[in-house]
Amino acid sequence: MPNATTYTDDQVLELIKSVVGSPYSEELRKQVEDTSGRPTRPWGNYVATYDSRAERINLNINENDIIISIYFG
User: Exposed, middle or buried: residue 15 (CB in 10 Å: 0-12, 13-18, 19+)?
Assistant: First the structure.
């Protein structure tokens, strides 16, 4: 069940920053989503929609499927 707590962007970054440098997986994406209570998607080396949602977490993935950064939108 998703986390019912509402976090600020800074709080979310503090909660999930440890995933930077980790290999991307759907399981990890789901874990970030459950921890933060926010929709989460891969970005970069993955096909994604271009719609912008301020609360959404984007996991920026490089060509080696490593999470290299996190941003919102």
Answer: middle
DSSP state for residue 31 in the 8-state scheme: H
Q: What is the pLDDT of residues 49-71, one digit of tens each?
A: 566 677 899 999 999 999 999 99
Burial class (CB in 10 A: 0-12, 13-18, 19+), 24: buried
User: Structural domain tally of the chain?
Assistant: 1
- Residue 66 DSSP class: B
68 is in which domain, residue-wise? 9-72
1: in domain: no
- Name the pLDDT band for 28 (thresholds 50, 70, 90): very high
